[in-house]
Amino acid sequence: MTRHALGPVACGRAGALALGLVLLGAGPGCSVGVDARPEPCSVEGGLFAVSVLEHAFGPGQDVGQDQFPELVFGPPRGAGESAGSTDHVVSLGDGGSVTLAFGDRAILDGEGPDFIVFENPFLVGGDPENPYTELGQVSVSQDGDTWVSFPCTAREYPYGACAGWHPVLAHADDNEVDPTDPEVAGGDAFDLADLELPHVRYVRIDDVVDEQELAFDLDAIAVVHPGCF
């Protein structure tokens, strides 16, 4: 597993901090303590992942890995219900994982879903009950050390709290669909209330290993309810 330290700030992972490395990504770094409490705020253009805390690519599929991490930052570029995007995703490989951060911002528990994970599934034959899926388990953390997972246990439709089974409708370049609106954006929405968490700062996605050796392809993560420190 490749880890990317957060720099000389109080963000957990003391061992990683000692490495003195820079967090992958061009966005703002973590500069607030883990005990700080974010307040609701608006972020111009929307809040998306801006950096990678750590990653571990598995074997097999390697689409987009040569453009990692840039491809997983910013808004999604989905291909709609009938096709999965292949030019703006990064495959985690079989059993791979990635952990993303949002700079000096957080995801708050608000009314309804709080963030959306975008993969590249599509509906086989246009049938909403027959999506082509490459599933991922989503976990969240306030400090980068302690994690809580949304239970991704289903292996047939409907896939419950897994990521990677709802087509992505928002495309930053091709349409005006709001990628932070779970009613229209597509993707898989998650509610922190399901885990009884008031806020989180990090999101980890683990590829769900299956017999077909398919791998989760990450497009983007959008925050519905951003928090500022």
* Helicity, as a percent range: under 10%
The major β-sheet equals: 6 strands, antiparallel
Overall tally of domains: 1
Large-scale geometry = globular
Distance between the termini: 30 Å
Keywords:
6-stranded antiparallel beta sheet, Jelly Rolls, 4-stranded antiparallel beta sheet, mainly beta
Describe the structure.
This protein is mainly beta and 229 residues long. It has one domain: Galactose-binding domain-like (Jelly Rolls, Sandwich). 2% of the residues lie in helices and 26% in strands. The chain has one helix and 18 strands. The strands form five sheets. It has a six-stranded antiparallel beta sheet, with no helix packed on it. A four-stranded antiparallel beta sheet has the order 2-18-7-14, with no helix packed on it. The chain has a four-stranded antiparallel beta sheet with strand order 3-17-8-13, with no helix packed on it. The longest helix is centred in the first third of the chain and has 4 residues. About 9% of the residues have low confidence.
What's a quick, concise take on this entry?
With 229 residues, the protein is mainly β. The chain has 1 helix and 18 strands. It is globular.
Task: Set out the fold topology.
Blueprint: E1 2-3, H1 14-17, E2 39-40, E3 47-48, E4 51-56, E5 90-91, E6 97-101, E7 105-108, E8 115-118, E9 122-123, E10 131-132, E11 136-141, E12 148-149, E13 188-190, E14 199-200, E15 202-207, E16 217-218, E17 220-223, E18 226-228
Antiparallel strand pairs: 1-4, 2-18, 3-17, 4-6, 5-16, 6-15, 7-14, 7-18, 8-13, 8-17, 9-10, 11-12, 11-15
